[in-house]
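In response to the reviewer comment on reproducibility (Comment 2.3), we provide here a single inverse folding case reported in full, input and output, so that an independent group could reproduce the run without further information from us. The structure tokens appear first.
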């Protein structure tokens, strides 16, 4: 129960196959009180049904590409809960055409959109949470990233650029928030069949390669990634900040 007496905000949960759901399940089983944010009030019924197993939860709508929405979210959370101990940032999006076509054909709008939603939103979330004094001392902010930030993966395209920006942002945020005892890290998860992954061309071939080449000779699960995030949200990782930690069966260490 390494998150006992801690309150954690899960941002970006979508369905039972998402990594955010795996994180929520692990955090809950380790004693955390959970808060959720999701995009679009029209999705409330679906999200509340999805997370109904997590006793005592509360869900808020928030468009993470809108600073005003983020501010309203944290004001509501502070009113209802006071300060919180952790945030999972599980928010990313790119236009379908920018994933299906060659990267060189990425539109200016598509480039801006992917980076705004997938990377800048973490900066905005961190800043607004700090400014509104929503985070307890020793709070932990954890984001999700992917290997395509450092290597070329067919079909990942502009999302790889956005994840690279996210990872660099994590290092600068860790430096800015460190004096307040707030940690910022990311888990780089191996490929998982999520709704978002369906947008990547030939995604199944990536799964096959990881299973053949990774040192553990298997892909990872949302539960395993969830456990890694739970560790980063807990006091067991109090000396870790500004890091990108791979939970990918070791695939990232392989040259071929």
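Designed residues, in position order:
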């Amino acid at each position: 129960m390494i998150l006992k007496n801690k309150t954690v905000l899960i941002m970006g949960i979508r369905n039972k196959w998402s990594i955010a759901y795996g994180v929520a399940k692990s955090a809950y089983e380790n004693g955390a009180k959970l808060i959720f944010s999701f995009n679009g009030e029209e999705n409330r019924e679906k999200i509340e049904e999805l997370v109904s197993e997590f006793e005592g939860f509360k869900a808020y709508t928030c468009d993470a590409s809108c600073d005003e929405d983020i501010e309203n979210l944290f004001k509501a959370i502070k009113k209802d809960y006071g300060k919180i101990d952790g945030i999972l940032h599980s928010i990313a999006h790119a236009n379908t055409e920018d994933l299906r076509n060659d990267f060189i054909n990425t539109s200016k709008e598509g480039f801006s959109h992917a980076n705004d939603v997938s990377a800048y939103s973490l900066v905005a979330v961190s800043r607004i949470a700090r400014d509104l004094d929503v985070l307890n001392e020793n709070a932990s902010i954890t984001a999700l990233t992917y290997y395509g930030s450092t290597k070329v993966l067919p079909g990942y395209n502009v999302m790889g650029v956005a994840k690279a920006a996210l990872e660099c942002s994590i290092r600068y945020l860790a430096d800015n928030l460190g004096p307040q005892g707030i940690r910022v890290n990311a888990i780089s998860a191996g490929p998982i069949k999520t709704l978002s992954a369906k947008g990547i061309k030939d995604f199944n071939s990536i799964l096959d390669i990881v299973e053949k080449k990774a040192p553990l000779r298997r892909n990872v699960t949302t539960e395993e990634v969830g456990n890694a995030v739970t560790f980063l949200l807990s006091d067991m990782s109090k000396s870790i900040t500004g890091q990108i930690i791979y939970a990918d069966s070791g695939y990232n260490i392989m040259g071929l």
